[in-house]
Amino acid sequence: MRTTVGIVGGGPAGLLLGRLLDNAGIDNVVLERRDRAYVEQRQRAGILEQSTADTLRAAGAGERMDREGLVHHGIELRFARGSHRIDFPALTGGRGVLVYAQTEVVKDLIALRLAEGGPLLFDAQVDAVDGVAGESPVIRYRHQGAERTLHCSYVVGCDGFHGVARQAVPAEVSTHYERAYPYSWLGILADAPPVYEELVYAHSERGFALASVRSPTVSRLYLQVPNGTDPADWSDERIWDELDARFALEADPGWRLARGPVRSKAVLPMRSHVTEPMRYGRLFLAGDAAHIVPPTGAKGLNLAAADVTVLARALIEQQETGSSGLLDAYSDTCLRRVWRAEHFSYLMTTTLHTDPAHSPFDTRLQLAQLARFTSSPHAAAELADNYTGLPLPR
Ligand code: FAS
Ligand code: PHB
């Protein structure tokens, strides 16, 4: 089989890139190793930045998002048993965020792809990407019991942190920057109505907690836990009790979450990772294949969307004009935004989580930073600007 752009991975990055190229009339094939049901139910991100929502709308993939997504105009920070709201529009000249789960974005993009787009192959395990330093790279994959080859003009690795595309870059070319954090998140999905209007991020002496939303009847909640935690050690009751303890307020001692059956629970390690450059020859890396952020800043999915928006623009320029200017600038263009998001995610994570290696002095520094965020319009604006998402590169 032959195509102009071979896309490894059918997560949000690969699917959105495929949609953008379809709309531009550039033929492409998406190869996804898992089946459709698995990809559509995989619980991950929940927050879309304005620019991500705009890209999905412009790509014709925003109809259900606009119907079912929840516009949020702020977040609540809780620390020292107090509550403080960060007012996004007031601090950013009108920007907010959209609460619309990654699972729903993926479902919408898959439905569009299958209805009117190019080939999307599920259960297609890519084993190698070869020839990326030349003019005709190939993707070697297994599908329906046979070894197959996809001949491409360009290959885009959208295959996540554990993907194979990145391995096609010679070790001496790549630089990997990483940081592992000494804690993880226990994430749950519960049939329990959120009793909070906006997301609540809590710093407490017992550890971090986050209350997010999936719908008026479904809560998405996270608890900081030690690395290596087994979710089976956390009963529903233990989870609810610990969440209530971490969200406790001095001014409202009766504040409690509404409880309900926990539908799913999983432990997610906290890590940061960046691979530079995000391009080698005719191979481009996008999304988690190139970078990972701890989810405290709600950046992962949005960075993936930004990468493929920039890359689609560059591929369209090349196909229409023959110029490779934007393609040549792709890695530097994306990395400027990636490192800004890495820093913001690091700041939110280290300010809000209790670190086992912390001294009381370190905890006081965290509380001073949180007090600064919630008492200074300058500091609050910096948080709101990063959280709602910086404008896409032109
Ligand atoms: P993805 O990992 O989503 O997709 C990569 C795709 O490539 C997968 O479908 C995979 O099956 C496929 N693939 C891999 N190897 C392949 C191969 N060899 N052949 C074919 N296909 C292959 N971000 C937030 O903002 N908030 C969150 O709360 C949050 N929670 C997360 C929880 C978890 C458990 C994880 C892992 C990540 C979380 N993230 C969160 C980050 C997440 O949303 C990512 O940023 C987002 O999924 C990035 O999308 P992709 O780059 O498409 O990568
Ligand atoms: C989520 O809704 O899953 C979510 C929201 C904000 C975050 C992380 C996860 O920072």
Write structural notes for this entry.
Helix content is 36%, strand content 29%. It is of the alpha+beta class and 394 residues long. It has 2 domains: 5-70 and 101-178 and 271-352, FAD/NAD(P)-binding domain (3-Layer(bba) Sandwich); 181-269 and 356-387, 2-Layer Sandwich (D-Amino Acid Oxidase, Chain A, domain 2), CATH 3.30.9.10. The strands form 3 sheets. Strands 1, 2, 8, 9, 10, 11, 17 and 18 form an 8-stranded mixed beta sheet that branches. Strands 6-5-13-14-15-12-16-19 form an 8-stranded mixed beta sheet. The longest helix is centred in the C-terminal third of the chain and has 28 residues, at 325-352. It is globular and about 65 Å long. The chain starts with a strand and ends in a 6-residue tail after the last helix. The model has no long low-confidence stretch (mean pLDDT 97). Bound molecules: arabino-flavin-adenine dinucleotide and P-hydroxybenzoic acid.
Number of strands: 19
Shape: globular
Structural class: alpha+beta
Work out the helicity level.
25-40%
- Fourth-tier CATH superfamily name of the largest domain: FAD/NAD(P)-binding domain
Rg is 21 Å
Looking at the overall shape, the CATH architecture of the largest domain is 3-Layer(bba) Sandwich
Distance linking N and C termini: 34 Å
Domain unit count: 2
Small-molecule binders here are: arabino-flavin-adenine dinucleotide, P-hydroxybenzoic acid
User: What string gives the helices and strands in order?
Assistant: EHEHEHHEEEHEHEEEEEEEEHEEEEHHHH
- The CATH class label of the largest domain is Alpha Beta
| Continuous helix count | 11
CATH topology of the largest domain: FAD/NAD(P)-binding domain
Percent of residues in beta strands?
Answer: 25-35%
Could you describe the largest sheet, including whether it forms a barrel?
8 strands, mixed
Instruction: State the low-pLDDT regions, or none.
Output: none
